[in-house]
What we know:
The chain has 9 helices and 8 strands. It is an alpha/beta fold. The chain starts with a helix and ends in a 13-residue tail after the last helix.
Amino acid sequence: MSSKLLQAFTLALTAFLAACSPIKVLNALTPSSTFTKTSSIAYGTDPRQQLDIYRPAPAITNAPVVVFFYGGSWNNGSKDDYGFVGEALASRGIVVVIADYRLYPQVRYPAFLQDGAQAVAWTYQHIADYGADPQQLYVMGHSSGAYNASMLALDARWLNDVGLSPALFKGWIGLAGPYDFLPIENRDVRPVFFFPDSPPESQPINHVSAGAPPSLLIASTDDDLVNPARNTGGLAQKLRAAGVPVEAFYFDKTSHATLVASLSRPLRWLAPVLDRVTAFIQATGPAGSSARQSPTK
């Protein structure tokens, strides 16, 4: 496709998605033949403490598993909106857990990290019943969900509280994550982190250590919400300085929102995010990982 035609198609698609509900459109165009879904499993007592599981179809034994946290500035979001993420990873032979978590104003930092740790603990304890190998566990997120994933992977406090350690992760994956954002500029986020008294320990970049799990960081060069140079670039630099294996990729046809949307079948042409995630899991998993080697388009 020529650059002019690609630009015109992108503008037309953007206009179409803007006129509709973008997530509803993506999910409506997501096939159901590549996965089986188990919905709304409680991992805690609060109504927001529930998760969905997407299993590859046909079923795979001892598959790797990804716990995914969505974004929304810790103010909004629902696991029901991210079926396209579950389908994308399941189509590559990966079991996917998409977890809801409590949001502001019901809670503030660090309650959503405590929820995330509980969701990971439930997954580690029960996911073998759904065909996955708990020894091949990854945590992943987009935007504020990438923050949640990074804190679970880098700051041992949260998993320690549930009797686990970040050492259980084979790796973690962040898409357009805010990892170093003090002082807070986003007015929706300020009350979540007690602005102007936001605690420095709330920042993922302050928890990098040599024992951190291997990391895959992906960002858009055209991100007007989370600065990619400061956040993705800064965290990647600090991880490398600590000797942690890290890969960082930047894509210029995406925005903050379309970076995660590029996991969906209609928008995979925007950036090879799904390929990068799959390759990372294959590279960090055990020899003979059951993640499918050939891409499913």
